[in-house]
Amino acid sequence: MARRAYVIGVGLTKFVKPSPGQGAYWELAREAALLALTDAGLSCEAIQQLLAGYVYGPSTCGQRAAYEIGLAGIPIYNVNNNCATGSTALFLAQQLVAGGLADCVLALGFEKMQPGSVAVDSCDPANPLHPHLRAMQQLRSTGDAPIAAQIFGNAGREHMERYGTRPEHFAKVAAKNHRHSANNPRAQFQTPWSLQDVLASPVIYPPLTKLQCCPTSDGAAAAIVASQDFVKQRHLDSQAVEIAAMVMVTDIRGTFDRPTCMKVAGYEMSRLAAVQAYERSGLGPEQIDVIELHDCFSTSELITYEALGLCEPGHGGELIDSGAVTYGGQWVVNPSGGLISKGHPLGATGLAQCAELVWQLRGAAGARQVPGAKVALQHNLGLGGAAVVAIYRRPDAVASRA
User: Fold this and answer.
1) First to last CA, the chain
2) Percent of the residues in the chain that have a pLDDT greater than 70, as a whole number
3) Residue 351 · residue 85 · CB < 8 Å
4) Distance, C-alpha 286 to centroid of its chain
5) Is the pLDDT score of 400 beyond 60?
6) 22 FRET partner, CA 20 to 30 A, in 3, 158, 266, 364?
7) Which H/E stretch holds residue 195?
8) Residue 104's beta-bridge partner residues?
């Protein structure tokens, strides 16, 4: 029988615009890891294994980062799963603890990126995204915009054509997240752009404007996962957040055999991961209070509302119109500002989502705090592909909600 796994410490650097003049990746990693250790009240000696997630860099960056922290001699795994890298490292840490292979594991994600859009050679058959791009090209002609913007922009176009969603619906998503990030001192952007500002910003690929697209970022995040026995031995019950369920799903065959633009953009992976996470946790969307989801583009967030079961397919536009996904609504989605405003250092993103939700469930999120938050959901997506959905809860959450 699987053991319960808990997040007992988190750490997060400020996310910033990429620049060669600021900290090296191992410095960012060290800052996040030491913050997580301090949060948990632990020394390096307590860490039994380490998962290091990053997308850009040599094959053993994890060792370099670990040695900077003072970790040595333990198993270190280097993880790369595109934009889902951070949550993949966390997923593996949770598996090690739940499977009884370790009692205290550090998941660490970091990234140093280049300014500007992420480059993808859409013509190279060796590119891992080649099957996805080939599937998309069966449905839409490609343009000069960055490939990621085209993939998620086409998913939004498909949603508009199927359901009558309007460009303003996607812009409202971005305006909400920019508004949320104004209260996040670690966010790359903290300007509360209005709906009109979002719509008036330069068009990247219709319906997406610049303020609806996540930036490239430098940053790092960390989470320490421990067993129930470890939590009790170290008297960490008051700050331990339970991972009630954590699921990873990769592309289904239908993504390529029967493609749609939304499938190419990860909709089906996200839906399947959410269904499994609800089943394993015994919790449903109606019991979730706060959500951090993968809004690399505003279209992705709106489509993911439906994939997560927050509303029926085709009703994402109505959901954002209703105010149900911000403060005062049924859920607060991306209180951190999300990828659009907080930033998106690829290897750190999933762990930054975890950190935000841990703070929310501890009641320690400051001006971003979701009142009475007891159950949280995390969604992290990587094209190529992988979707990770996790459900977190305070130990008293189920009893208090019964």
Assistant:
1) 25
2) 96
3) no
4) 21
5) no
6) 364
7) helix 195-200
8) 226
Q: Which amino acids are annotated catalytic?
A: 83, 344
Which amino acid, 20? P
Express each pLDDT in 154-193 by its tens digit. 999 999 999 999 999 999 999 999 999 999 999 999 999 9
- If pLDDT is split at 50, 70 and 90, which confidence band does 119 have? low
Q: How far apart are CA 89 and CA 102, in angstroms?
A: 15
Q: How far is 39 from 179, CA to CA, in rounded Å?
A: 28
The beta strand positions in 1-73, using DSSP E, are 5-12, 49-53
Question: What are the structure tokens assigned to 253, written together?
Answer: 């065959």
d(CA 278, CA 367): 29
Integer-rounded Cα radius of gyration of the chain: 20
pLDDT digits (tens, 9 = 90+) for 65-84: 999 999 999 999 999 999 99
Q: Which residue is listed with tokens 């300014």?
A: 115
Q: Judge whether 117 and 296 are in contact, CB under 8 Å.
A: no
How many other CB atoms sit within 10 Å of the CB of residue 122? 15
Q: What is the pTM of this model?
A: 0.96
DSSP structure string for 142-170: --SS-HHHHHHHHHHHHHHHHH---HHHH
121-141 pLDDT per residue, tens: 555 667 888 889 899 989 998
The H or E element spanning position 312 is none
Distance from C-alpha of 37 to C-alpha of 47, rounded to nearest angstrom: 9
Q: pLDDT for 211-253, tens place per residue? A: 999 999 999 999 999 999 999 999 999 999 999 999 999 999 8
Which pair of tokens denotes residue 230? Answer: 């470890």
CA-CA distance, 224 to 222, in Å (whole number)? 7
Calpha distance 393→282 (Å, rounded): 12
Residue 223 forms beta bridges with which residues?
10, 107
Contact 311, 305 (CB under 8 A): yes
* Mean pLDDT, rounded, of the chain: 94
266: tokens are 């990860």
DSSP β-bridge partners for residue 106: 50, 224
**Separation CA 71–CA 67 (nearest Å):** 5
